[in-house]
Design goal:
Blueprint lengths: L4 H17 L2 E6 L5 H11 L5 E3 L3 H14 L16 E6 L3 H10 L2 E3 L11 E3 L2 E2 L7 H6 L4 E4 L2 E4 L3 E4 L7 H9 L5 E3 L2 E7 L2 E3 L8 H22 L7 H18 L6 H9 L4 H7 L1
Antiparallel strand pairs: 1-3, 1-11, 2-3, 4-10, 5-9, 6-8, 7-8, 11-12
Helix pairs in contact: 8-9
């Protein structure tokens, strides 16, 4: 049963209100997230004045289209291609990294279900199990090396059971359930970030000031090296050019007994007086 007319009208008004109120949002996928878990995430985000909005993609696209027609040139229209699949919006004006941390903290472990796609690699650790010798054939079917220790099956070495992107089969699901391993965690997964009209990957949030400073320093060094090699002065290369010129002047002053300047005197004092003669003899 679809939404009532009044409910649709409220939803349209609500989403437009959020678009105008908040300058930032996450586009999140909500696969395998239950209603109870969603409620817990909403409660965790409430102190940060952050709102989760879910809805049918057709309705969300229509609202964005109508909003863009009423507000020509508004950057929110750029989100239109991202409204596909099982997604939602997390509207916020708070620090994006803090909101993302809360989303990641509210992930819950889940068993591997038959037919599910593994979001991560699954490795079964070596060690004893609660299974008796009668289960040996089952482990052999999965090509898992085992031995019997004190009447229980023990896995002799770690087993790479699933790789990211693999579909979980019946045998893999049964084995993980038997070993009481819940290998997956589910929650809201940030797909893209919208920030005052800019759209970028969530990995950008991991870039700290230290990383930016290091990258800028490396780029500046490359520019200076290129400028010096091409003998083309730039702001980045001038300090190096001045330093090299100073070194040249000091070396001349050191070699000349009759010439010096204030800044070179300290370097000349470090050179033994018989050093030039000894060098000449060699």
């Amino acid at each position: 049963m679809g939404m009532s007319k009044d409910r649709k009208a409220w939803y349209f008004e609500r989403m437009e209100e959020l678009i105008t109120t908040y300058a930032k949002l996450f586009v999140v996928s909500v696969d395998n997230v239950g209603s109870n878990q969603m409620q817990q995430i909403r409660l965790a985000l409430r102190p940060m004045d952050t709102v989760i909005l879910m809805g049918k993609n057709t309705m969300m696209r229509k609202i964005v289209k109508n909003f863009a027609e009423k507000n020509p040139g508004h950057p929110f229209e750029t989100l239109m291609p991202l409204i596909k699949g099982n997604i939602g919006f997390v509207f916020t004006n708070a620090d994006l990294a803090d909101v993302r941390d809360i989303l990641e903290a509210n992930r819950v472990p889940a068993p591997a279900r038959v037919g599910a796609v593994a979001p991560v690699d699954v490795v079964v650790p070596a060690g004893p199990t609660d299974s008796g010798p009668e289960k040996t054939a089952f482990f052999q079917t999965l090509q898992i090396a085992t031995k019997i220790v004190k009447g229980r099956i023990e896995i002799t070495s770690p087993v790479e059971l699933l790789f990211k992107g693999d579909k979980v089969g019946a045998s893999e699901a049964q084995l993980l359930a038997m070993l009481d391993i819940r290998p997956f965690t589910y929650g809201l997964i940030v797909e893209m970030v919208y920030d005052n009209g800019s759209i970028y990957s969530p990995e950008v949030l991991d870039i700290t000031d230290d990383v930016l400073e290091a990258r800028f320093g490396l780029a500046l060094s490359n520019v200076a090296a290129l400028s010096l090699g091409a003998n083309y002065p730039t702001v980045a290369s001038v300090p190096h050019s001045v330093c090299n010129a100073f070194k040249t002047l000091v070396s001349i002053a050191v070699e000349c007994d009759s010439y010096s300047f204030e800044k070179a005197d300290a370097y000349k004092a470090l050179v033994p007086k018989d050093a030039p003669a000894a060098a000449a003899e060699e």
